[in-house]
Amino acid sequence: MSEFAVGDTDFLLDGRPVRLLSGALHYFRVHEGQWEHRLGMLRAMGLNCVETYVPWNLYEPEPGRYGDVDALGRFLDAVERAGLWAIVRPGPYICAEWENGGLPHWLTGPLGRRVRTDDPEFVGPVEGWFRRLLPQVVERQVDRGGPVVMVQVENEYGSYGTDRGYLRRLADLLAQCGVTVPLFTSDGPEDHMLSGGSVPGVLATANFGSGAREAFAALRRHQPRGPLMCMEFWCGWFDHWGTEHAVRDAADAAGALREILECGASVNVFMAHGGTSFGGWAGANRDGELHEGALRATVTSYDYDAPIDERGRPTEKFWRFREVLAAYADGPLPEVPEPPARLGAPVSAVPAGWAAAAEVLEVLGDEERVAPLPLSFEELGVDRGLVRYRVEVPGPRQPYALAVAGLRDRAVVYVDGVRAGVLDEEDAVLPEPVAGPAVVELWVESLGRVNYGPRQAEPKGIAGGLRHERQYLHGVRARGLRLDAFTAEAVGKVPFAELEPEPGRGPGRGPGPGGGVGGGPGLYRVVLDVAGAGDAALALPGWGRGFAWVNGFCLGRYWSVGPQESLFVPGPVLREGPNEVWVLELEGPAGERVELA
What we know:
By secondary structure, the protein is an alpha+beta fold. 20% of the residues lie in helices and 30% in strands. Helix 10 packs parallel to helix 11.
């Protein structure tokens, strides 16, 4: 057992000055079977510590119903075996380009902007969550013989609010739950961020990607004493769908890292290894200086242009960072681990079965609900997935514009079963007017809840209403299709129709979500025969937008707009012989084949 403390100028381990050379690795973005390899890569790069967030919404999908919370403990045990220290950032808010910043939809839905404040209706569920989660951390603190040396209070709160009572309450709650290692906060190196996000008596750290001397000078204005630390050294960046892939020059990043260390500071490389937002858990952002603009959905890959890429391989940035960090190591750095096994040989196949979207909804969907106005995803209990809204335009009446107010995020619209357009603006109008009587269906997909900024906690679905001319349409039916509904048992009940495409052509194109000869929006079943299972990439050439699963494991969203062109498949997900792939195509067209390489 050891004592880790915050000194006047340094971190202290049993009274001796130590420098934390940490790397961010979100265990929930890495298949558990590959934790050991990724941690070995961190050590080989020259790091002595690993940092991770904990996403609340991943583990408490409904109030009081918990998932595999013990995964954090297993990861921290792996950290200890790897000979690393650990920094834990339990939230409750984490940002992390993660759905809703890690906050559960069932909490943000009713509370809205009251989240992340000292409101009892927010703090109460936080306390329940922390008391369930934190034993995983407490029993693995360094003063109990474990690897955990620090725990964060909230996350970048100075970028959001000024409720100092809320921050004080969280710090006290962590102590009440048994956290005895030092607490810290982390914020951007701006006066308003540091003043809004700091807690008296708790170590403040700074997040930035360059300009270490200026950033630490700002930190010193607010915290004259204590060790300096860059808690997030942004060595790369994340991508949004429909944009260019973000890349940071390796030499430039290494120079910025060197400057941090020359200041005598500790550092957490963000990200050391980004991993993947499996399961459709990627978040989203809003454009504009005040984050009030168009939604920008984050891609499935969280590669982050990190020194260790999405597949766990060293990049040029890895080698540059290793050179910098070697000068601060106690001895020679460990050898770089061998990369995980790769797929033995590429394989591809055409879809063998298809079920129309309406048929999939009938089997896997939640119960349909009717309300005067459209119900939000939160009111329907849908976290990730889509909702079919159905409304009748009475008649007879002449054609008028059909408008959707408060659309979030993307709707494929059908009028009497015929596709009428795709809407993706908050206040949108269907291109062609609609005459009555008619039945209008809007298949609305959440592209990820906002994870950063003042628009966090906004509802998904149709937040306003549907209008024909200036008249609201009432009696809206809504039925959710949650990604969690796609289990092997449930999908086994879906009535797949066999697809036999003509030579050289893909499946036929159905007219809409409700029927046709195949090839329209719906669920596709593909069987890939694998020899030599290992890490692979799933490519969907010619497909539009949707989600993909391999052997029941949800890889995440694909979208032809790029920049991501394939989905990472961890080797432990594959097996020798037949592997079943499901592709939920939401918009079309459907591609001719699926490729694994």
